[in-house]
Amino acid sequence: MAEYIKLNFDYLSEDEQLKQSRWFLETMKMRRTVRDFSSEPVPFELIENAIATAGYAPSGANQQPWTFVVVSDPDVKHKIRVAAEAEEKENYERRMSDEWLEALAHLGTDWHKPHIEAAPYLIIPFVQSYGLETHPASGKQKHIKHYYAQESMGIAVGMLLASLHLAGLATLTHTPSPMNFLRDILNRPENERAFVLIPVGYPAEEAQVPKITKKSLNEILVHV
Ligand code: IYR
Question: Closest residue (by CA) to atom 6 of ligand 1?
């Protein structure tokens, strides 16, 4: 049965609305995917706050089908790098089509992933394709169907990336494929699948990024 409470909502003046919306646009325009990280430490609260923010994302049936694993242990980062590079070497040298490699060429990526060890933190959001509930009496595990888990996770990761960017940190959305090794290395349960691997930290002093452009508003907005 649904139970309701009064909505807590900030009604802003039009000036305030425009100011905040423009500020957010200008700030997010500056977000870039970074591949050169410094190992300078990052306050852990920034990581906690970003994950807490992601936890406020809307989700199918409010099932919140996510777990965010944070890795700072150098040995674990090393294991992840070795496993990711093994998969990526196979991808770049054998599994990816010429068409795919061509689409990526302007980014200048390859199978080497030093950022996995350089960045002070890795955040690995795991999506729970279904829920697992243990029956208290029998100890039997029951599968709970999750709705729109992928879409929910995508929204949560967007909020996570925005929070980290606003906190003055650089991120990389890395998808070594397949990512099963992350569940094994991080001992996650069978219902969880790594969604993306996100190194987080400050950019290296001389960090470079590919010269790319974004589509203009005209190209992405259709007003009916
Ligand atoms: N996962 C590989 C390849 C790669 C794929 C896409 I799609 C990108 O936008 C970037 C890279 C890698 O991380 O290098």
Answer: 104
